[in-house]
Request: fold
Amino acid sequence: MKKISIIIPVFNEASGLQKLRAALCPLIDNSLTDTPYGWEVIFINDGSRDTSLSIMQEIHAADPRFCYIDLSRNFGKENAMLAGLDHACGDAVVIMDADLQHPVRVIPQMIRQWEDGFQDVYGRRYERAGESFARKTLTRLYYYILQRSARIDILPDVGDFRLLDRACVNALRQLRETQRYSKGLFSWIGFSKKEVPFEVDERAAGRSSFSYAALFNLAIEGVTSFTTAPLRIASVVGILTAVCAIIYLLYILVRTMLYGDPVAGYPTIMCVMLFLGGCQLIALGIIGEYISRIFNECKRRPAYIINTVNGHAGDNHSML
Ligand code: UDP
Ligand code: MG
Reply:
């Protein structure tokens, strides 16, 4: 019998966990799939500050198919997912959110595609329920730019809800960067992919932990971890400005020689200085983003630290 692991990062989801367990039960009792599978559900407690952990303990005590990994603090969803991937032992691994926005009813469809030979079956939202127009437009624009500059396909409306074959999981586990941008990593590893459309449900309980600021950071993360295009743009802008500066310099030289040098031009000087100063600061900022990535990655810290696994002191698999 094939085994399927479901990994679920959890951050302050106490109010929804029991509902999630109830929703998963028919699936792991094999009443939703044609063939029976062995199941394992792994909650990763990503440093929740509410009672999520004790609820996980309760669920585990009642039904040992539900396991939990308690991280030592909040490491972020991306790293929590990696902890799950490191510990999952199924032939396939399903990643889903704890808030029931990723409907359980889609998982059997994913499994069918997996059985048909696809190795990375991802859910694609076709309804962004409850999102503002501004957020939707910004998202579209961002993906357009990212697609254009990175050489891999990073799809909009595709999140972390997916089923991965063991081969994909093993590949992902080799990518040990600590500032992870999973959306990009899933594309980077390749393998045969298949889309399953699904409608995003409303959050079952609690509220989204991703603010605009967090999304902005994730966006920068995406760009800086998959493309060096901003550096190239900075160079091109630099060259263009230098060419313009030379033309302007020649113009001023000639004009001074022909008409003398009346002391004027304060506005011009201010404009040029401020504009160039701005360009330089932007370019420095871009370089800084990449240096900060180098700084963070070269420390080679593990992506997460485990406190306990199912209540037992954790052996740290994180430095594989
Ligand atoms: N999450 C996490 N660590 C964090 C933030 C979120 O493990 O630091 C989990 C959260 O519990 C949920 C999933 O990631 O299972 C998605 O989070 P959320 O629903 O807040 O994001 P959204 O659906 O708004 O993108
Ligand atoms: Mg959510």
